[in-house]
Design goal:
Layout lengths: L4 H17 L20 E3 L5 E2 L15 E4 L4 E6 L74 H9 L8 H12 L2 H10 L5 H14 L2 H12 L7 H11 L6 H6 L6 H12 L7 H4 L8 H11 L5 H9 L6 H13 L3 H12 L6 H17 L9 H8 L4 H17 L12 H11 L7 H16 L7 H11 L20 E7 L2 E6 L10 E2 L2 E2 L1 E4 L2 H13 L10 E3 L7 E7 L2 E7 L6 H16 L12 H12 L5 H16 L8 H10 L17
Parallel strand pairs: 6-9, 10-12
Antiparallel strand pairs: 1-2, 1-4, 3-4, 5-6, 5-11, 7-8, 11-12
Length: 688
């Protein structure tokens, strides 16, 4: 039984022995002709796989090629080549297992996009007049190099044979093989040229690296030709990186841009990754021709690169593909234009959306970018002047057009200071948005609109249902009759002043402030932080309301939503008056002076009412507040307030276990800052 250690040992020995052998005395060349190791075969014209079982009497297609079953394609296909084709050289009268005299290990290769024929139509190999005939560049080699290296039995063949069992390109054996073959000189290069046609990932990758390391322009061209053809998936990324590193002149951005149309998906992604490192204005003219491709996946990659290039020419391309026939490509243009700063972008989008008599698909995509731009910047771009055109689009039979107009109208109606003039917001707009999110009517552009429609539904309804279509339908069936949409303009009518609810949330802190006429909701819990409740008197409520009105929080100039980065450090303020509310979130990296002043007013109201935290265990907080608030509403000195607070704290902690007294003790520390509040007898309560 053969030991599994012997092949690996032999390969390591070869890695050491071959460089030493190069120093030996050169012997005269053998006069006998080398023999190739390829049996006569045909090549499938679809996938390029070898077929050794094409019968001699196979039927012939219209192009004169034999038709036979391909095991790879799993169907009958046309085949090229044969036992007498150039490069095989089968001896006369030999059977199917005979070997040729060409000394080659490579099937016929074809050209690919950017270098010749189309990838799905491999060309036939050109006849070779002899071993020394020059191979036309940049085609793959079709004959043995001068000298006819005996690949079947030589050291190079042994190296490649050892690589056959590898299915990846990151094995340590790959690097050793490259070094060994490179040290062989021309023999190693000849073997690498022959192995370029291999479908084995490790063998193909090693062959390419050896030729790239050799540095000869013709060899680099051979690798580029092979890299343009269909490749094993696992070899795509390392091969693209090796090309970019080895010869940036031949493997230029233009070559990688053409390779975005590669027949292998993994190679398209690898080339996009290489090009992303070269982002800049110089990349625009290279990518523009690729955007003309009929294949949407190619346009998707190219436009995705241009979307991140800060250049006016890139902006022009984004506008050109704003209504691309494929929704996924148009979405890239929408997102890029929505996030790109500049008043000129605003003007171009408005002109594109409302420049025609009717709103059709092209105009709807510009309108969608406007809506998303409003969501990102919280700066309105459309207003009551555009309502008539949008109401006309709302009636369109094209669901994408009507849904986009509904999303735009939702923003206008929400911001309007005239609720009586925007009655269409309450039902008509919501009807259309619910249809979009539900997915009940499918169309090609549905994926472009669903997210925006869900966001606008949440804005005008206050429901946080995401893109869950069935839940939106369930909610709308129960809420449609008599539904009144939420609006950014909160009108505080006479008598509504005391119906104020304020919710505050920050890291480790959550509070609910309730006006005297407000309907108190159930206190919520934010993460691990319980929401503390503070009841406000009429004077305190109106004081807070005045601050909010002065800062414009109830008007359309302060749109609800997030400002800055979401997550840790975020603060949130939610205001509700008589059931109509707005919510603001400000990230740690954002500075909004109006928000800071509003937050300071909320903090001051909570500080004045700290005493409410110490209601006796047998009393509700509301009844405790009703009893104590008349005294606290009057003017008192700080010392008087401290003494009163101390009495409430001691009443609350009396009878509590030591482990439950932490909040009370912390409050006493604050109270004892006032000298008049200190009394040595206070400590008797802790001795019980």
């Amino acid at each position: 039984m053969r030991s599994p250690v012997r092949p690996a040992f032999a390969f390591l020995f070869l890695c050491v022995a071959v460089p030493l052998a190069a120093a030996q005395v050169a012997l005269p060349p053998s006069t006998s002709k080398s023999r190739g190791n390829l049996a006569p075969h045909h090549v499938c014209s679809v996938c390029g796989a070898r077929n050794y079982s094409v019968p001699s009497n196979a039927r012939v297609g219209e192009d004169g090629q034999p038709i036979a079953y391909c095991a790879t394609c799993k169907k009958e296909t046309a085949h090229t080549g044969g036992a007498s084709e150039p490069g095989l050289h089968a001896p006369q009268g030999s059977g199917s297992g005979a070997t040729g005299t060409g000394g080659l290990r490579i099937p016929p290769g074809g050209e690919v996009p950017g270098r010749g024929a189309k990838p799905d139509a491999p060309s036939n190999p050109a006849p070779n007049s002899g071993a020394n005939a020059p191979a036309p560049a940049p085609q793959a080699p079709q004959s043995a190099p001068a000298g006819g290296a005996k690949l079947a039995d030589g050291p190079a063949a042994f190296v490649f044979q050892e690589l056959t069992r590898l299915e990846t390109t990151d094995d340590p054996l790959v690097g050793k093989a490259v070094d060994t073959l490179a040290s062989m000189g021309e023999a190693g290069l000849a073997a690498a040229r022959a192995e370029l046609a291999s479908e084995r990932p490790a063998r193909l990758f090693v062959a390419a690296r050896v030729l790239l390391a050799g540095g000869a322009g013709a060899d680099v061209d051979l690798v580029l030709v092979r890299a343009s053809a269909k490749l094993p998936t696992v070899v795509c990324t390392p091969l693209a990186e090796a090309l970019a590193k080895a010869d940036p002149v031949r493997a230029s951005p233009a070559w990688f841009a053409e390779a975005l149309a590669h027949p292998t998906g993994a190679m398209r992604v690898a080339c996009e990754r290489v090009l992303r490192r070269e982002l800049g204005p110089a990349l625009v003219p290279v990518l523009v021709p690729v955007l003309a491709s009929k294949r949407p996946e190619v346009r998707h990659l190219a436009l995705g690169l241009l979307a991140d290039v800060d250049d006016p020419a890139a902006v022009d391309r984004l506008f050109a593909h704003l209504a691309d026939p494929r929704a996924s490509v148009a979405q890239i243009a929408v997102h890029a234009l929505a996030s790109r700063p500049g008043a000129d972008i605003d003007a171009r989008l408005l002109s594109r959306a409302f420049g025609q008599r009717w709103i059709l698909r092209d105009e709807a995509y510009a309108l969608l970018a406007i809506v998303e731009r409003e969501e990102r910047t919280l700066h309105p771009l459309i207003d009551e002047r555009h309502v008539d055109a949008l109401l006309g689009g709302l009636q369109a039979s094209d669901r994408f057009v009507s849904g986009t107009c509904a999303a735009a109208l939702a923003g206008i109606g929400f911001r309007s200071a005239h609720p009586r003039d925007t009655a269409w917001l309450d039902q008509q707009v919501v009807d259309s948005l619910v249809v979009v999110v539900s997915g009940r009517v499918f169309h090609d552009d549905l994926s472009s609109l669903t997210g925006t429609a869900a966001a606008r539904l949440q804005l005008v309804s206050g429901q946080e249902l995401g893109q869950d279509g069935p839940k939106w339908i369930e909610w709308w069936l129960s809420a449609r009759d008599g539904h009144v949409a939420r609006r950014a303009w909160i009108e505080v009518a006479p008598g509504d002043e005391d119906a104020l609810l304020v919710r505050w949330r920050a890291d480790g802190d959550a509070a609910l402030l309730i006006g005297p006429a407000a309907k108190a909701p159930v206190a919520a819990s934010t993460g691990r932080v319980a929401e503390s409740v503070v009841h406000l008197t009429e004077a305190e409520t109106r004081g807070l309301l005045a601050v909010f009105q002065k800062e414009g929080l109830f008007g359309p100039e302060k749109l609800p939503g997030a400002r800055g980065r979401r997550g840790a450090g975020e603060r949130a303020l939610e205001l509700t008056v008589a059931g109509r509310g707005k919510a603001f979130q400000v990230g740690e990296d954002a500075r909004e002076p109006w928000f800071e002043r509003a937050a300071a007013a909320v903090s001051a109201a909570r500080e004045r009412n700290r005493w409410q935290r110490f209601a006796p265990p047998d009393r509700s907080q509301y009844s405790f507040w009703q009893e104590q608030s008349p005294w606290w509403s009057l003017e008192h000195t700080p010392a008087e307030r401290a003494v009163r607070s101390k009495a409430l704290v001691f009443a609350a902690i009396t009878g509590q276990r030591p482990s439950e007294r932490e909040a009370g003790i912390q409050e006493l520390v604050r109270i004892y800052v006032e000298p008049e509040a200190r009394d040595a007898s206070d400590f008797d309560a802790f001795l019980v």
